[in-house]
Amino acid sequence: MHTTASIVAAVALAGAPPAPPGMARLPRKGLVGYWAGEGSANDSAGRNHGRIVGAVTFVRGKVGRCFKLDGRGAHVQIASSPALRITGDQSVAMWLCADTIQKHMNPFHKAYGGEFSVLLREGGYLRYAFGMSGSNGRPWAALVARDAVEMLKARRWVHFAAVRDVTAKTVRLYVNGRKARNLYGVIYLPGQPGRPHTGDITALPKARASSYPAYIGRGNNECFAGLIDEVALWNRALSHAEIALVAGSGPGVPHLTRAAAADRVVTTKGSVLLGEIRNAQFTVATSFGKVTVPARRVVGLVTGAASKVPATAPAGEAAAPRLVLVDGQVLVGKLAEPAVEIRIAGGSTLRVPWGKVREFAYRVSEARPSAPAPTGTMVSLAGGERLALAGTGPELQLLTVHGRVPLAVSGLRSVEATGKADRPHRACFVNGSELSGTLLPARLALEFRLGPRTTVGRDAVRRIDRAVEPVAPTGAATVELRSGDCLFGTMGDERLTLRIVGGDVVVRPAGVRTIAPDPAKPGQVAVTIWNGSVLRGRLGESAVTFAITPGGPTVKLKVAEIAALARSTVDPPEAVVRKVLALIAQLGAASYKDREAATKALVALGPGIASLLKRHRESPDPEVRARIERILSDLAPTTAAPPARPAAPQHRAIRLRAVAHATVGARRLALEAE
Prior knowledge:
Number of strands: 50
Shape: globular
Number of domains: 4
CATH class of the largest domain: Mainly Beta
CATH architecture of the largest domain: Sandwich
CATH topology of the largest domain: Jelly Rolls
């Protein structure tokens, strides 16, 4: 038996150094490169070690230490390898702290016409690009997160992630763990003007591998000036929940530094013991009763002695004694066991009293993976507890400016505290929708999976999370609210009435492209219909019905609270639909003359028929498929407008394209839209 006096000798026998502190947040599946900046340019996930070029130094970063680059040539060069030549699904993530946002700088780059390139553009825009040239040339696609403008400031940390999902043919960008909504993108094809897009990469489904090295802090633009931390690369498309975990914006699990080959105990003086933790169980006196957990279900513990937060801990780490379980649960309270027991190399066993322990953690293994594997519904409380509920939990509602909204379990992903007095809670739905308000009821009766029951006030609840994968919205409509919330789903009204000069116009929602406030006339809206015509007036309804789909609630949205509404799929009137279908059939006619005539007739109908054409892209007739792609190309805009800086952070603008070529002459006009 040994005491803490034996610690120095134990450290000498401990063995290999621990994994980087940020490793615990990274999903291991598909991780091909992880450059943590912990004093070297080594790859902690594989063998893609970097070479330091120029005056690269290492300073305190967002997690542990990070790369400090001078912007005058300092960078890390990583030799090209099969693992880095990712042409399909891909995810990249990193923390950035730029000295300036008034330059074009590449924090992470391989080839913008190849596997990937990340660019910080002048003004605070973050861009992700890839292409099919296998070089820094066309064809390539870029997508810019305008959301970053609101968060990216000089000398301030921001997390950026990009996910290329080839299966879904989309690119998703994330800023500080939240999916970017305000996007601007361009696809550059050889010999053609840039074509706008907002995440749809149908024209470029895969990248082409290049022979170029990868660079941290260098690319085709100026070298990066500032700090870069936690650069990671995956050969798969990470989910929303995984990105939130990587960015540290997901459920609050205490930071634990874990080794790959040994259990780990850190003392209050900073000494590290590596070996095998021998405790059979842990008993915690929580605020709702004693709970005993077998050691096999425990990942590690951060004790009250960790009030001096180590440099490796993420910003904001609390200083409460917390026991972390394999499924992500966190228990807070005093432990009944007097000490942690660890057997070190050579067979000696040390018993370190809790008063001498800063933290301990079990080694990463199949039974105790690097990332928690939560199931069911979890509640995070103000005291630091994170507990799994028995069953689905209490029935919840959200009191919003639109009225009470039921939060059905089937469509809900999480509820989180916002810290805002007027909208203290935000509900996040499985399809990516977000809605703010006040959580109801005021007191929640909770039954925990570990056994105890308790009742807490809603102010004590920090988050409620359900372990569900996000799903794609099934509706065609997107609504931006003045509160900053965004909803995806389906318009539920059969018709809307627009009061214009000279009479009322009845509009079928299925034929509406966009509805937006008319900036020239407060209280009125501009409605763009299927063919690009714009009608201006006042909606006769004070609220519109909107269903968050799939699985979410139906909400009566107050028109005055809508900042913008857009539909991705809009059908022309029935007569036009019949004509389009007949012309599509004619695209496969035996006569070349008939095929050409049908092609010209479809182009003449204008961009309003694009949604109908896209539904026939998978026609079994190759001639029809080829002509549809040609028509869609002809109908696409021929120029790309440069991105505009958002005027105000509280309203994210939706950029609209419209070609007005219709007028309203009747006193009452029914617009057949479907």
